[in-house]
Amino acid sequence: MPRSLPSGRDAFLPAVLFVLATAELALSGLPHWVWGVACQGLACTLLILRRRLPLVVGPLAAWVLTIGQIAEPALNDAAAPIAVIVVACYSCARYRADLWGIAAVLVMLLSAFPQYFLGEATNDITDVFFVGALLVPPFVFGRVARQLGEQSRQLAEQQEALQRQAVSVERDRIARELHDVIAHSVSAMVVQTAAAQDLVTSDPQRAKAVLADVAATGRRTLAETARLLHLVRDEAGELGLEPLPGIADIARLVEGSEVELRCSGDLSGLPSAVDVSAYRIVQESLTNAHRYGRGPLSLAVDRQNGSVRIRAANTVGSTTPQGGGLGLLGMAERASVLGGSLTHRVLDGRFELEALLPVDERSHAAPPSAPEEPR
Description:
By secondary structure, this protein is of the alpha+beta class. The chain is built from eleven helices and five strands, in the order H-H-H-H-H-H-H-H-H-E-H-E-E-H-E-E. Strands 1-2-3-5-4 form a five-stranded mixed sheet. A hairpin with a 2-residue loop joins strand 4 (341-347) and strand 5 (350-358). Helix 4 packs antiparallel against helix 5 and helix 4 crosses helix 7. It is elongated, with a radius of gyration of 36 Å.
């Protein structure tokens, strides 16, 4: 595939150098300064390709400037060519992963020798060392910049991988919990349907009531199954036997901690997915407050306008948090799966978090009751 043309970013710095060099030569009063402008223009044009062909651009630019100064020795007093050499030498180190840039710098250094032999009589060997002193620092700086750029790129990739892993782990955890919820609902539907089959001839009214409970349970299960289909699950460790926690367990969760807990609204009878997710969000908020905050955690859980709202706030600690924000990613993923949202900010030295979990009132009904044994 052919390489793309140089971008405006590649041409910006050479253009600035050319303008400065032209202004310097025009104001210098040197004879044949136009010749110097032509050489500077060619060298700056070569710099446009410094990112793609640094090993070619660097030596060519140095020799173009050398030829110009040999043809007109008075141009040796100009300072602008030094900037061109510095940029070219930096490019040999910054845009090459191997050490061939050292060979390019040596070729650039050799460009000082013709001036020593063919230039003015005032030139001596110290000019060669002067050129070497100009080349070494930008080359070293270019290598350092390249290493820092590589480390920054690797850190960004690792952070992205950690975030993807955190989201995947949280999705697996949600999937296992919803799996238990749905398994329980389907089991209840099977039992109720079997009871309705026994009652359909002996007591049609009771059979109708039992089937209504089956329909309500099915609607709740379908709503939670729709969310489950958006998750990526693994098949390991799905047989958890512990009961799922919920909002009713929050008081026990915060017991013994510096938490100002306020609950309002009817928080009973929530869909299991919302109930579990609300508990997990509160649990992660409490963990973050212990790690990165100081003072008591203000925690409010309320249900209003068809949603469960969780608000947490605490004073930011004096030390800089060292976490990667993975806990916040997990909470946001839980809220997103349920069709809700999670926002957070730092205001006046306090970290504030708010999660909104919608509750589908239409698909939610009272928990199914076990049918009575037929008489």
